[in-house]
Amino acid sequence: MMRKKIVAGNWKMNLSKDEALTLLKELQANFPSQNQCEIILCPPSIYTELALQNANSFNIGLQNVSDKENGAFTGEISASMIQSMNVEYCIVGHSERRQYFGDTDTIINSKLKQLLKHNITPILCCGELLEEREAGRQNEVVQNQIEKAIVGLSNAEIEKLVIAYEPVWAIGTGKTASTHQAQEMHAFIRSILNSKIGDASNKISILYGGSCKPENAKELFDSPDIDGGLIGGAALNANSFLQIAQSF
Ligand code: 13P
Description:
By secondary structure, the chain is of the alpha/beta class. The chain has eleven helices and eight strands. The radius of gyration is 17 Å and the shape is globular. Bound molecules: 1,3-dihydroxyacetonephosphate.
């Protein structure tokens, strides 16, 4: 079954306004005319308008959303605000948010529900820590993250998700999961989804993230269950990001 190929760039908390603008213009000027995938940019939310105006060939996503609807929640951004900006994607449950900002499985579940309610496609991140992989617990950890994230979602809602498998030990470390390790986990994730929604699980794009770069993207993306990538460091350089996006 055909499913969407996606390459998304997570800029994290990087770049000044001028640097962001330079990168956006470079990306826009070099937008691949024959790309095989959907390309999403997720700049810091303060640059959303800048991205919409200067890189309009790309889809735009945010890196986080509030689990609350609206109101007295200083510093937060709601799903309805994201929707009102015509932004179509939002990352949820990134390991950095789980690790440093207290995003629990329950909060991630509420964030997913907010996004789906406002018609924004969530890019749901999951992935094990190094010690969990060393203890052979990676499947159990990822299964638990996914099952808790999707509690209360209808089958139709689950079908709308994009999943990103990002082993924490591969993020920003230069250490990529081997193609075998990644494919194995992606197939496992699809089997979890299959047990919930059956064959519709074949429509869900599962992205790999963690030190993905032009040198390893093609081999990873050639695997049957790896439908693209969520790119950190390499997304801050127009050349390498676009090269990755053309690795199908
Ligand atoms: P790196 O590509 O820098 O390892 O980051 C991956 C990531 O966390 C994307 O969300």
